[in-house]
Each structure stands twice: as C-alpha cells, then as structure tokens.
Protein: 5'-deoxynucleotidase
Organism: Roseobacter denitrificans
Amino acid sequence: MSDRLAAQIAFLSEADQLKSVMRASRLHDNSRYENSAEHSWHVMLYAFVLAEQAGPDVRIDRVLKMLLLHDIVEIDAGDNPIHGTVDAAAQEAKEQIAADRLFGLLPQDQAKAFRDIWDEFEAAETPDAVFAKSIDRVQPPISNMANGGGSWLEYGVTIDQLSQRVGTPVQRGAPRLWQWLFPKLEAFFSKMPSK
Amino acid sequence: MSDRLAAQIAFLSEADQLKSVMRASRLHDNSRYENSAEHSWHVMLYAFVLAEQAGPDVRIDRVLKMLLLHDIVEIDAGDNPIHGTVDAAAQEAKEQIAADRLFGLLPQDQAKAFRDIWDEFEAAETPDAVFAKSIDRVQPPISNMANGGGSWLEYGVTIDQLSQRVGTPVQRGAPRLWQWLFPKLEAFFSKMPSK
Ligand SMILES: [Ca+2]
C-alpha cells in the first residue's frame, strides 16, 4: 500500500502544475488570464448546473470525471487556444506523450482507468464525451461576453468563426443551450469594439 | 426555459469570482498563493485518486459534487485559514448568509439541492461528508511540504497543532492515509526552518 500511495501522491503533486498553465480566456472581471485548473473546476460546475441540457443517455457523474481530467495533459503539452493557429496533428502528438507520462505516474490500474476516461473525452463519440466537450466549449464565450470580448478581440474572431468552432460542438451536445446563447452572441458581436 | 437558463448562467458567472478568493496555502512551486477555485479542482482530483481510502459507505460521485460546491460561499464570506484566528461563530454566520445569496441565484429546485449538498458537507456527519472533509484537509499539508513550509511557517504552526487541526478530521475520514502521512510530517517539522 505504501508504494501505491506514494505513486498517487506523486501524481497529485505533479498535477499542481495545471494551476500554472495559462489559457487564452480571461476572468469575468478581466483582471487576468484564466488557468487550466480553475477552468476545469468551472466547467465541472457548468456541467452539474446544466446537466438537464444533456441527452437522456448522458451520465453526469462520468461527465464530471472527464472534465476533472480533461486538461491535465496541458501540464506538458500546453493549452491549445481554439482560435489560435496551432498545428493540430503536432499538438495531438504532444498530448499523447503527455498522457503517457502524467497518467503513467499513477499505479497501473488507475493509469489505465484515467487514460481510458481521457481517451473517451478526446474521441468525442460517446454521449458523455459529446456533452463534456459541449460544456468545455460553452464556458469561454460566456466569460468573453462578461469581460468585453477577451480572446475574441485578441484573436480577431468573427461570429461565423465562432459558430463553426464553438457552435458546432455545443449544438451537438447541448442544442437548446446553443439556441439560447446564439442570439446573445450575435448581439454582442454586432457592437463589439475592435482591438 | 429561458428564465431558468438565465438564472443558471447568472449563478455560473457569479461563481467565476471564486478564482479571485485567495487561500493561505501556496502552490507546490511556491510561486504564489492558491485560489479557492483551483483548490476545489485539486481536492476533487485527490478524492477521485484516493477514493479507495474511503470507507465502504462512501459514494465517491457524491463526494465529488460536495467538493465542487464546498467553497463557493467564500465568494462572499472569504477563506477562513485553518491555522488563523477567525471567530468561528461569526464566520459561520457569514457563510450562511453567503449560501443564501449565492445558491439563491439558481432556480429554486437547484438552489435547494445545492444548499442541501453544502449543508451536508458542513455538518460533517454522513460518511460522504466525513470523507470529503478529510480530503479537503489533506491537500494543504502536501503542498506545504512541497514548497518548504508555506502556511505553517506563516502561522507558526507546531506538529501538535497540525495533528489536532488536520490529523483529527483526516483520521476520521481516511485513517490509513493519515497513518502514511504522519511520519512524513513529523520528519518535515523536525527540520523545518523558522520564518
Ligand atoms: Ca483545453
């Protein structure tokens, strides 16, 4: 048991670094960029509050676990801003290596279980993963509207790009949520200042 | 539905402020204080990884939800450092008012459900709450050992105070974990520099 606990605490200690991975999105009060650990907490809260937006096959307890783990690879691979210009294949390769190393710190049974959850999230095929992805995508636009434009201004994003990059996954996992949100986004973009 | 979603998003937006509530504990790399949102994510990860430390009656899915919500009252009431000298009764009164206001932003059914989860955590009586509390208490000592002493140095904490304030709840919810951790804490305190 002692070795097992040592491995678990080593993983949990390494995970502390997610608090220092900075994202492209900013806090609602615009005081600073958001980090990936607090983002992970916030999207879990979104998923729990908005669980009724999910289809009947979605098990919210599994969605929370997916979102708990979904960004841990960023400790090694960094955040990949959705409106940025990162090479997707290169980033995916980096994330695979990161997942090997980071989940590999855990005892073997947990390493496999955690990796399976993360792989399922990344594949975005099961109902749980589709909903988790939609929730992960819907939080930054709400922050951006609160703080005056945030990453949209920084990356020069148009409403059409937003519809494609965010609307597509959100509609897939939480269609009523997108239907409610889209008119608000349109209104915001129609009067958004340029940088 | 539209009003319901508006209330839910208002709550989720207000919750963003938990990212700006600073705790007494510091990151493992000692670069800055930890905030209560990223702490909440980290203790959920602790609970998930260390679930096998819980007693047979503990339902880890409920523990995760408790830890997701457990610090939201701090948006209004502030963090209450375990080694600090806050008036416990006054702090509890502030937290009750905070819970009324913050959970009250949600639709009524969710306001009640979330408040019930938080009340259960605070009461620390059910097996789920006892385990959640033990996990919430065990994370800061591990950070403090990583960063050279952290809040122990700042508050002049002794190993006896630590045993009482942290050991008691951790032993209650996760006794084997405390058995494993305590000798490490003793060794650390025996050579900890003073401030
Ligand atoms: Ca991400």
Summary: The first strand of chain A starts at residue 22 and ends at 26.
